[in-house]
Automatic annotation (TrEMBL):
UniProt-listed CDD domains: cupin_MmsR-like_N
GO MF terms, alphabetically ordered: DNA-binding transcription factor activity; sequence-specific DNA binding
InterPro entries found in the cross-reference section: AraC-bd (IPR003313), Homeodomain-like_sf (IPR009057), HTH-like (IPR037923), HTH_AraC (IPR018060), HTH_AraC-typ_CS (IPR018062), RmlC-like_jellyroll (IPR014710), Tscrpt_reg_AraC-type_HTH (IPR020449)
Keyword Transcription regulation included in the entry's annotation: yes
Keyword terms: DNA-binding, Transcription, Transcription regulation
Listed name of the protein: AraC family transcriptional regulator
Source species of the chain: Paenibacillus soyae
Amino acid sequence: MDKHYEWQLAVNEAPLKGEMSVLFSGQGKPVEGHFIGPAVHDFYLLHVVLDGEGTFETLGETYRLAAGDAFLIFPDILVRYEASGTKPWTYMWIAFEGEGTEQLLRGIGLTPAGAVVRGCRQSRLRREMYCLRTGLSKADSAALSNLEASARLRQVLHEIGCALRRGRAEGGGTGEHGPADTEGLPAGHRAFRSVDQAIRLLTLQFGQHTSVDSIARTLGYHRSHLTKLFKEATGMSPMQYLNKVRMKKAETLLAGDLTVAQVAASIGYNDPLFFTKQFRKWSGQSPTEYRRRLTEREG
């Protein structure tokens, strides 16, 4: 909080499982040069810039942003964003998650490689996001607050989709709408890109017998140096991150009809007993117990 001139936050006390739901929403004005990352998130995080300036880095590209721009952080994608050193931005944000979210976002034109939006109608977005946040702050009914937040989120995404459509109609997507020139930006872009590539390799190859050594060789690094960069960016070692990806995938697969042995093999473990041991460390219960509790909740 001390790194912001302004800070407001509201949390959804009753997000629904199994559908797109808001987790929290806020507004802030960070101090000059304040930055977040490089880091990854477990959820989607949409920012809309109200005034001032800043930069957003994702997938090895850097974008300069100002009032009327928006950017979306995707889960498990390494990002970094920083307020201008002279005119720090003010922005509003919404964090959300849920099944079908990626498909919905892709349908309106938002993808990890196309996560920056220009020319948003600020007044509409400001109003919807303000109402969403104040709605979450109401103490009378968490369930009703969740319903309102879900509706407001969809209105916000509708406005974002309309801005993307206008940009395509006007021939946007390159030049001032594209990545910024990286000249004069902070050093470390090569390291940022390397960690981002490592994350994508781990995320895509979790079902194979992936090793840190092989990824380091692919990226042209020594294992120890890559591990150091990875920890600085994410707070985890590459193998800890791989375990997180595998365990989250296992949770999804255990909701289906695969046997425990088939789930283990699907995420890169030949030994079901070793998988069971790792899953118990992750969740506090065995795969069989986890599946049974899922079934009980659904029943």
